[in-house]
Amino acid sequence: MKVLDAEFVKSAVAPGEWPDAAHPEIAFVGRSNVGKSSMLNRLVGRKGLARVSNTPGRTRLLNFFDVTLERAASKEVLRICDLPGYGFAKVSKAERGQWVHMIEAYLAERQSLKAVVVIVDVRVGPTDDDVQMIRWLEENGRRPIVVATKLDKLPKARRAGRLRQIEPVLQLPPRALLGFSSEEGLGRDELWSAILAAAHS
Ligand code: GTP
Ligand code: MG
Question: Which of these, 17, 76, 188, 190, could form a disulfide with 12 (CB 3.0-4.6 Å)?
Answer without folding.
Answer: 17
